Amino acid sequence: MFIRKQQVFLLLTFTVCVGVIIVINTQHMNLIFQTEVHQRGFIRYVNNSIKTSYMPNKIHYVCAGTTGRLGNQLYVFASSYGIAKRSGMKLVVGLNPDTLSQTFQIEGAFETDWGLCEASKFINANKCCQVANQVYKVRLNSTVHIFGYLQSYKYFTEYNEEIRKYLTFKDPILRTAKTKLNTLLTKKYGKNYRNRTLIGIHIRRGDYLRKGKQQFGYKVPSEDYFYKAQQYMEKRYKNITYLACSNDIIWTKNTFRGQRDVIVVPTGSAAVDLALLSLLHHMIMSVGTYGFWAAWFINGTTVYYKNFTLPNSDFAREFDKDKLDAIPPHWIGF
Ligand SMILES: *[C@@H]1O[C@H](CO)[C@@H](O)[C@H](O)[C@H]1NC(C)=O
Ligand SMILES: *[C@@H]1O[C@H](CO)[C@@H](O)[C@H](O)[C@H]1NC(C)=O
Ligand SMILES: *[C@@H]1O[C@H](CO)[C@@H](O)[C@H](O)[C@H]1NC(C)=O
Ligand SMILES: *[C@@H]1O[C@H](CO)[C@@H](O)[C@H](O)[C@H]1NC(C)=O
Ligand SMILES: *[C@@H]1O[C@H](CO)[C@@H](O)[C@H](O)[C@H]1NC(C)=O
Ligand SMILES: *[C@@H]1O[C@H](CO)[C@@H](O)[C@H](O)[C@H]1NC(C)=O
């Protein structure tokens, strides 16, 4: 799903740069701060804000910055929300890029003033898709800046309901999605399309087929996976209509050619199409964070592609052996 090698290197480079800044600046600091600064992983901006931020009884924050596109940003938000709650701390999310506040009624979920994070301890979740213990619960009495993709539902699963409230789609987005869905169904079945079981199929291809990503270990499922997933759904549900969303419409049309009850959804904005998927009953995923979030919103039966990392690849090493941190236990794998 989730990470590129270049990004890993960027992250390391950034960490090293910060280290350099710290070393340069320690000369100006008093002894107490110096010992703290020399601990591995600490980030301190050396100016007056340090002293006030480390006074006892001050509010401490969990700080995290959004990264990538919608699916990745949702993970950073939900996971840092869970971490902050679990740790009894307040949350600051640096919205850059900011797709979240344009898409959801997310106001009030966190502070956005990054100045609150000026003097923070830097904590790294090294693997995109495994829970890092040092991040899962933050024990230190200081503001922490959590760095990483945080792509495990385990960071936030016990706060699903609260998070769901903040992830209510903005009205115009939801309205557009409802109209789009209604139009597609009416076009296929006429006005009388009640009693259809609506199942989303998300087919991520496109960028996942690029050489760099393939070498890193990304895989995409073949037609057979989708057919198996459909067979499974058809054993459990009747009167199914599939709504297939993809960044490879041609492949998708070819794959489902001749299947009467598949609607290939014309590609809209990421937000509208996620809202559309959220209105359905069940989900067939392929790969990628966007599909995870569609399944999360639907919260019905989810079928996922089990073998989504190349064995022994860098990408595979981002996950635990059975991908238990990334895949909720009740999902059905093929
Ligand atoms: C402290 O340093 C940070 C980072 O360099 C900077 O953003 C902030 O404005 C500084 N604060 C003050 C009060 O100088
Ligand atoms: C954090 O603060 C509390 C109360 O002030 C104290 O009991 C606890 O030992 C502190 N923990 C750490 C890790 O400093
Ligand atoms: C399937 O749809 C038909 C009408 O098209 C309806 O009579 C039937 O009750 C539906 N079955 C289920 C299980 O909803
Ligand atoms: C839809 O299903 C319900 C029972 O599940 C049935 O009462 C109703 O007649 C069905 N509607 C259509 C249009 O088939
Ligand atoms: C899905 O629904 C179940 C039961 O209704 C609930 O316990 C769970 O938290 C929900 N999951 C999500 C992701 O909302
Ligand atoms: C998973 O995919 C790899 C190729 O990427 C293949 O060698 C392996 O046999 C597959 N494993 C299963 C269980 O299908």
From TrEMBL:
Highest taxon of the lineage: Eukaryota
EC number from the UniProt entry: 2.4.1.-
Xref: InterPro entries: Glyco_trans_11 (IPR002516)
Topology within the bilayer: Single-pass type II membrane protein
First-listed, main subcellular location of the protein, grouped into a coarse class: Golgi
Pathway assigned in UniProt: Protein modification; protein glycosylation
Biological process, per Gene Ontology: carbohydrate metabolic process
Subcellular location: Golgi apparatus, Golgi stack membrane
Bilayer-crossing regions: 7-24
Keyword check for Transmembrane: yes
GO CC, alphabetical: Golgi cisterna membrane
EC class: transferase
CDD domains, sorted: Fut1_Fut2_like (cd11301)
GO molecular function, one term: galactoside 2-alpha-L-fucosyltransferase activity
Keywords: Glycoprotein, Glycosyltransferase, Golgi apparatus, Membrane, Signal-anchor, Transferase, Transmembrane, Transmembrane helix
Family designation: Belongs to the glycosyltransferase 11 family.
PANTHER family for this protein: GALACTOSIDE 2-L-FUCOSYLTRANSFERASE, L-FUCOSYLTRANSFERASE
Protein name per UniProt: L-Fucosyltransferase
Organism per entry: Patella caerulea
High-level lineage: Eukaryota, Metazoa, Spiralia, Lophotrochozoa, Mollusca
